[in-house]
Amino acid sequence: GAGVLCSRNPITGANEPFGEWLPGGQGDDVVSGLVNVESITALREQLPAVYDQLMEAAHRLERLAADVQEIEFTVEDGKLWLLQMRSAERSAQAAVRLALQLRRESLIDDDETLHRVTPAHVEAVLRPALQPEIRLAAQLLAKGLPACPGVATGIAYTDVDAALDAAEQGEHVILVRDHTRPEDVLGMLAAQGIVTEVGGATSHAAVVSRELGRVAVVGCGHGVAAALSGKQITIDGYEGEVREGDLTLSAWSENDTPELCELTDIALRISPLRAHRTGDYPRLDDCSEAAVDAAMTAGHADIVSATPLITMLNALRVRAS
Question: What is the pTM assigned to this prediction?
Answer without folding.
Answer: 0.85
